[in-house]
Amino acid sequence: MSAQPLRLAVAGLGTVGIGVREGLAKHQAVLSQRAARPLKVVAVSARDRHRDRGVDLAAYDWVDNPVELAGRDDVDVVVELIGGADGPALALAKEALGRGKSFVTANKALIAHHGGELADLAETNDAALKFEAGVAGGIPVLKALREGMSANDLDSLHGILNGTCNYILTVMEREGTGFAEVLEAAQKAGYAEADPSFDVDGIDAAHKTAILAALAFGMRPDFDALSIKGIRQIAPIDIAHAADLGYRIKLLGLARRRNGAVEQRVHPCMVSKDTALAHVGGVTNAVVATGDLVGQTVYEGAGAGAGPTASAVIADVVDIAHGCRRPAFSVPADDLKALPTLDPMELDGNFYLRLRVVDRPGVIAEISSVLAGEDVSLASLIQRDTAETDGVYVVLTTHRTNEGGMTRASRKIGELDSVLEEPVMLRIERFDQ
Ligand code: HSE
Fold first, then answer.
1. Tens digits of per-residue pLDDT, 417-427?
2. Helices then strands, each counted (H, E), the chain
3. What is the pLDDT of residues 44-87, one digit of tens each?
4. Which residues line ligand 1 (CB under 6 A)?
C-alpha cells in the first residue's frame, strides 16, 4: 500500500478512546484496505498522563492541552472523545474545523448544542464533521438516515436512545422493584453513572433526539426546543398497570414534522406490546424512522460501550479517508431551516394518570368533575388497593384528548385535598396518528 496514511489525533483516552485505539490496532490491515490508506494515530491527549490504561501509548506524541492537537501539521483528523457541550471539546472542535481539519466526535452534547455553528465552520473550511457515535452508539443510524434514506421525506422518528433508562425500566418490570432500588443496583454493577441525572432525567436522550431531528428534517439542532421528562417518577404500579393494558413503559425520544413545524420530545410513555420497540430490553438502543418511499425502518443494537462506540468512530474516519464531505445534517449548512416548534400543549394524545387518593365516598366524582371541566373523556378507571402506603391508587386512561387540557386537569387534580401526592401522567404513544 503506497498511499499516504491518514494521520489521527485522539483527545480523550477513557473507555471509548482506548476502544478506538484497540479497534484501529486490531483491524489495522483490513482498515487500510477499506480506507484505501493506512489509518495512523500520531498524537493523543488526556487529563492524566500517568494513569495506567492497560495499553502502551509510547508510540504516540503526548499533548497536555487537547486544543494543541488541532494545530499540529502532522494531524489530518481530530477525534474528540472528551465529552461535554462546551470547554475543551468545543474549543478543540472550533480549532480543528477552523484550520480545515476534519473532526470526528462521540459527543452528543457538543453537537446538540453547537452542531449548527460547527457545520458552518466545517463547510467554510472544506472539512468533515462526523458524529455517528453520538447517537445510539454502535448503530449506524445517522448514516442510514443521511445516506440510505436520502431519497425519502422523513417526517417521523422515535427511539430508545438511552441504555441506562431502558435497563432500569426493564429490570423494574422483570423484578417488580422500584426505581431507586434498581438505580442503586445498576450503579453498583457499573451500568449507571455515579451521577445518573443526565441519563435518568432524559437529557442524554434529548441530545440524541435533537441530532436525529436535525438530520432528518434538514434543520439546525435545537436542543432548547425539546420538551424533556425523565423516568424518576415511574413506579412499579405504573409498570403493572401498563402490562394489564397491553403496554410497556419506555423512555422515548420522538421527533415529528407536521405542516412545516416540528415536535421534539423525550419522555417515558406507554407503547403497545405489539410494537418493535416494546421488545427492546436492557441497555439496547433502537430507532424507528419512517420515510415516505421506504415506509418504516427499524435499527437496533448496542448504544454504548467501548467496542460499539469505537465501531462508529472508526467508520467515520474511514469515510473521511475516502474524502467524504457530506453535509453533517444532510443538506448544506446554509440551507438548514429554522423550523418552528409545535407546542406540546397543542398536541393531542391518549393519556394515563396515576393518583394516590384518600379512600372515601365522592373522591372519584371530584376527579371526574375536573376532567370533564377540561373536556377530557375517560376510557378506563380502576382503583388499586395498596398495602405499601396510605390511601389507594386510582389509575385512569383517557380517550384522545388535548395535552394542554390534560396537563391542566392533572395539576388541578393534584391540588385536591383528597389527592395525596403529585399525579403521574404518561402519554400512551400511538405511532399511526
Ligand atoms: N449513557 C448513555 C446511555 C450512553 O445510558 O445510553 C452514552 O450516550
1. 999 999 999 99
2. 13, 17
3. 999 988 898 988 899 999 999 999 999 999 999 999 999 999 99
4. 162-164, 199, 204, 303-304
The per-residue pLDDT for range 254-299, each reduced to its tens digit, is 999 998 999 999 999 999 999 999 999 999 999 999 999 999 999 9
In the predicted model, is pLDDT for residue 172 greater than 60? yes
Strand pairing class (378-384; 284-291): unpaired
Strands (DSSP E) found in 12-115:
39-45, 61-62, 77-80, 102-105
CB 112 within 8 A of CB 43: no
Task: List the domains of the chain with CATH numbers.
Answer: 6-134 (3.40.50.720), 141-302 (3.30.360.10), 345-429 (3.30.70.260)
Q: How many angstroms does the Cα of residue 283 sit away from the middle of ligand 1?
A: 9
Q: What share of the chain is helix, strand, coil (3-state, %, to 5)?
A: 40, 25, 35
Give the other-Cβ count within 10 Å of 294's Cβ: 13
Catalytic residue positions?
Answer: 208
Query: What is the spatial distance between Cα 81 and Cα 230, in angstroms, rounded to a whole number?
Result: 25
3-state secondary structure at position 292? coil
Locate the ligand 1 atom nearest the alpha carbon of residue 304 and give its number: 4
Tell me the C-alpha distance between 157 and 264, whole Å. 10
Between the CA of 161 and the centroid of ligand 1 the distance, in Å, is: 8
Measured CA to CA, the distance from residue 78 to residue 316 in angstroms comes to 11
CA distances from residue 56 to 10, 14, 50, 193, 394 in whole angstroms, order as listed: 15, 14, 12, 27, 60
| Mean pLDDT score across all residues of the chain | 95
